[in-house]
Write a structure and sequence with these properties.
- The chain has a domain of 121 residues: Hexapeptide repeat proteins (UDP N-Acetylglucosamine Acyltransferase, domain 1).
- It has 3 helices and 19 strands.
- A 7-stranded mixed β-sheet has the order 2-5-8-13-16-18-19. It has a 5-stranded parallel β-sheet with strand order 1-4-7-12-15. A 5-stranded parallel β-sheet has the order 3-6-9-14-17, with no helix packed on it.
Length: 175
């Protein structure tokens, strides 16, 4: 990436677009102009994007102060809700020697499938896929894949409850 493109991204994406003074339509346009694949208009201020290998699906909601560190690709499906200050960290390091333990950086993708709800200040670590319809509790640290339609909580996050699937919810509403 050229130096001017990096500067543009820093100034526009993490400066101007992150401001609470910028209307949501303009914020959306600024993110798209920086190469971020944003298909929703529900983007709150004060979010940080370290790159543009990010896709945010239709009807998704990104709350205040979310952090997208994407040395690896980040994909957020349709109808996903991110609580305040959710942190998506798509990179780690190889284990280095005693002189420097954090070795060569490695990017691993993060994928959040359709309909998930990620609670405030949850942390999603590199290489994780969160299955459709999951709820991740506030403050959880997700270091492994999450099976669909589950409630995950804790540090490290673990499945604590089975949630009804879409077809089951429709049946409940019909009663």
């Amino acid at each position: 990436m050229a130096k001017w493109q990096t500067l543009y991204r820093k100034l526009i994406v993490n400066g101007l677009a992150a401001s609470s003074l910028v209307p949501s339509r303009l914020r959306h346009a600024l993110y798209r102009s920086a190469g971020i694949d944003v298909r929703t208009r529900f983007l709150s201020p004060r979010c940080f994007f370290s790159g543009n290998r990010i896709r945010i699906g239709e009807r998704s909601f990104v709350n205040y102060g979310c952090y997208f560190e994407n040395h690896g690709e980040i994909t957020i499906g349709k109808g996903v809700s991110l609580g305040m200050e959710v942190m998506l960290c798509a990179s780690t390091h190889e284990m280095g020697g005693a002189e420097q333990r954090a070795g060569k950086p490695i990017g691993l993708p993060i994928r959040i499938e359709d309909g998930c709800w990620i609670g405030t200040r949850a942390v999603i670590l590199p290489g994780v896929t969160i299955g459709a319809g999951c709820v991740i509790a506030a403050g959880a640290v997700v270091h492994r894949d999450c099976e669909p339609n589950g409630l995950y909580a804790g540090v490290p996050a673990r499945r604590i409850k089975e949630l009804p699937a879409k077809a089951q919810v429709a049946k409940l509403h019909a009663l």
